[in-house]
Amino acid sequence: MAEKDLSVKLVNPFSGEIIHLPPIMVAIPGFHTVPECYIHRVILSCDPCLYPYSYVVAAMYNSAPVVAFIKSGEQSWTYVYNKFRPVNYILFHKEQLYAVNSRNQVLVIDYEGNDSSDDTEDEDEDEVEYYEGPCVEYLISQPTEYSHVSYLVESLDGGLLLVRRRYLEIIDDINYKVTVGFKVYRMTRKHSSDEEEEPEWVEIKSLPNIALFVGDNHSICIPAFGFRNCQSNCIYFTDDCTERDPDAPYEATDMGIFHLESGQIGKHYELPQSLSYLPPAEWILPKLQ
């Protein structure tokens, strides 16, 4: 939950426990202060209830999103310099923080290598310090062509998937976007001439017994057989409003299910007209029995 001063509050909806984090410093003077539009996504490396002294929080912020993170116990955020900003998505994967942009370039942040100090008394409150240390690695992988939105998803076997989403822009009284397709890639390593393993994206044409869920909050991969009426080889998607005008009304209508094999899009939930102006839907993953 983002406050008006851009401080972040983590709320456990079941226990009511609250973790207060410091404000994310503003690098652009005179910006339009709408917290839910300025701070796009906040994610956790692990459950703070189970690991209260070793969790990490990462955030996508700014009108053109960039990355910041903070470790448990720290008093200030670490701001990551990003050559290919803005980023589309962030994900904790195998104790590293990944970010991807619309051209599918990947930034890997080894946050364990960060030596940020808790002593902030001498810092200028109006200055944001970025860093690009040895813990930041750039993986420039194919495909490099532009996609409207890219997501990173951890596969069931622990691999890393890239999901590219394509829109059709509709120009009307209110401009909006309609999803027209997806492509899925898996990150693999290939041996170059100097025998170093280089990353590359390999397109996946089928996801047997697997379903992907993507959208404006969090993207997940699940075994389709573990959930009733869940179709395999499909991508379920909700409205993605990261570029929505903060003064425009919500209309969460771009939801559906993309069949990877046929390329067809169908409906997974008919949204009643009375609910069409609610914020976009979010995926909730129940525990498998």
**Whole-number mean pLDDT:** 77
| Number of E-state strands | 20
- Biggest sheet descriptor: 5 strands, mixed
Q: Number of helix segments?
A: 1
Can you describe this structure in just a few lines?
By secondary structure, this protein is mainly beta.
Secondary structure topology:
Elements: E1 8-11, E2 18-21, H1 35-38, E3 39-44, E4 56-61, E5 66-71, E6 78-80, E7 87-93, E8 96-101, E9 105-109, E10 130-131, E11 136-140, E12 149-154, E13 160-170, E14 176-191, E15 197-204, E16 210-214, E17 220-223, E18 234-237, E19 256-259, E20 265-266
Parallel strand pairs: 6-10, 16-18
Antiparallel strand pairs: 1-2, 3-4, 4-5, 5-6, 7-8, 8-9, 9-11, 12-13, 13-14, 14-15, 16-17, 18-19, 19-20
Question: What descriptive keywords fit this protein?
Answer:
mainly beta, about 290 residues, five-stranded mixed β-sheet, 20 strands
Could you walk me through the main structural features you see in this protein, from its secondary elements to its overall organization?
The protein is mostly beta strands and 289 residues long. The protein has 1 helix and 20 strands. The protein has a 5-stranded mixed beta sheet with strand order 3-4-5-6-10. The chain has a 5-stranded mixed beta sheet with strand order 17-16-18-19-20, with no helix packed on it. The protein has a 4-stranded antiparallel beta sheet with strand order 7-8-9-11, with no helix packed on it.
